């Protein structure tokens, strides 16, 4: 089974070294999709590339997390012809220790496997009250109740494994209307129109210990964050009204 691990990055220099050390020994293809991070994230990746032929870098100007995900998926599908694409973020929120079980579930016949904060003993740690409220509004209220996306309970988690043949290759990423983090719940919605073989693995999500969160009221990212929120709400209602 040919596996590609895809990770979008923006200003993740503090995390990317540890992440690539952890992943580089794997036999999988590792694709870092970097939005021209000014902190030098790409330089760290390039240094690893000199020693590891399975590490790949796709750089592009910053257009938003959703656009980076779309760009990465299209590139991975074309370049690697994989059986499965696994995505995650670089902040160690969801641990890659779940990867073997995720791939095992794909082999068992599931098409989409996600790590989940909302099944079994899954949970979030290190979150403020405002962060928990934001997550509830996005994941449960807008994506769940308004949009009616119910294939999984954790609709916004970035760590997910998706079978390519007959599933991921059926998505038309050129028609995805998302620039920001709404990509994640919209992808689940579109995948649920193709398959009902979803599986959630209970997982503990830990708030980053290094680097800056971009999903926050950090003044550096506030304008983008606000635009992402508005896009998320608009998309939830658009799905509810049958536009997608």
TrEMBL record:
Pfam families, per the entry: Glycos_transf_2 (PF00535)
Domain Glycosyltransferase 2-like positions: 5-165
UniProt key word Glycosyltransferase: yes
One of the record's GO molecular function terms: dolichyl-phosphate beta-D-mannosyltransferase activity
GO cellular component: membrane
GO BP of this protein: glycolipid biosynthetic process
Keywords for this protein: Glycosyltransferase, Transferase
SUPFAM superfamilies, per database record: Nucleotide-diphospho-sugar transferases
Stored Gene3D superfamilies: Spore Coat Polysaccharide Biosynthesis Protein SpsA, Chain A
Family recorded in the similarity comment: Belongs to the glycosyltransferase 2 family.
Protein name: Glycosyltransferase 2-like domain-containing protein
Organism: Candidatus Woesebacteria bacterium RIFCSPLOWO2_01_FULL_44_14
Lineage, opening ranks: Bacteria, Candidatus Woeseibacteriota
